[in-house]
Amino acid sequence: MVDKIGKQPGGPDHAPDEPLLWPFTAARLAMDACFWWVERGRAEQNESNLAWTTPNRVALELATMRLRDCSQRRSGQPVLVCAPYALHRALIADFAPGHSVVGSLQDGGIDRIYLTDWRSATPSMRYLSIDSYLGDLNVAIDEIGAPVDLVGLCQGGWLSLLYAARFPAKVRRLVLVGTPVDLSIDSPLCRLTRNAPEMVYDQLVARGGGNVSGGEMLRLWSKAPNRDDIVAALQRDLSDEEGAALLARFDHWNAETLDLPGAYYLEVVNRIFRENQIAGGSFKALGRTVDPKDVKAPVFLLAGLDDDVVPAAQALATAGLLGTPPAFIAAASEPSNHLGLFMGARTHAHAWPRIAEWLRDDLSGVLARSA
Fold this sequence. Notes:
- By secondary structure, the chain is of the alpha/beta class.
- The protein has a single domain (23-36, 43-370), classed as Rossmann fold (3-Layer(aba) Sandwich), CATH 3.40.50.1820.
- Helix content is 38%, strand content 15%.
- The strands form three sheets. It has an eight-stranded mixed β-sheet, sandwiched between helices. Strands 7-8 form a two-stranded antiparallel sheet.
- The longest helix is centred in the last third of the chain and has 16 residues, at 345-360.
- The chain is globular and about 50 Å long.
């Protein structure tokens, strides 16, 4: 049963303060950028010098990503964590001990885990589209060995859903965490995206030389995350020595931004957020129109009750769009904001063990009863 969702915080004019995961919807920011004509040099996107929490190796180098292998064993059902491709790096899925999706899945008995480590867009990548990312995701899954269990985080969630609808035989189970799919369900994010003039987004791409600059987005945003925001995201006190180290690590991670290909960015804004093509069943993925009802695999949905980026009502409404029988849809909601779903200590103590258990569960009994 899908959890019942209460009233979401904020009034009709409330807008999310968190810029961390939604550069594609930052309409206010985009409008500011249109009039921000002071030329300044753009910092180069260097490799991160933040260490990964979980030991891993690069299993595959692709144009859009490095496929990271975090496996403890070579055998067993593979899980691929599809990180958000937005403003920040994939370390969001492996931030720190007790704050790591990869680590929590391992603690829950999942031995084979892979992670999409998306690359920052270079000038040569400016024409890459959503199809480019779906294509490389397909190559990665073929390399791992299908079928996989696909765990999609935020934007990585709708990409995972598209993939599961396009290649249903290659996805055994699907987990969607804080994932926006049906954008007809009102949220401050959707409202901002719909109301901004189209030229706003075109101008952002033009200013980035064909890409959207993550660094510029971060510099222009009017409200950087403060200590209270970070406490809410990590869901722990930061006053001790370990907390101080986490605070410094968060600040470092937050400053390491990714650029997005302009073509990809505009497709996300227009096809997904403005036209709602995924929920409407009209999204063409790698040459074929796909519909969420094409997904028949078991699905787990996780939402944050305090999430104003992807409200819980929106995240859980995906259940009604799928072709998955209701008996195979699990759902949970946590008292968490958006980032807390991926980084929060409380969420990792409560929700992620349940997800790991669900991935390991034998559903053959449910299959037999529903046949």
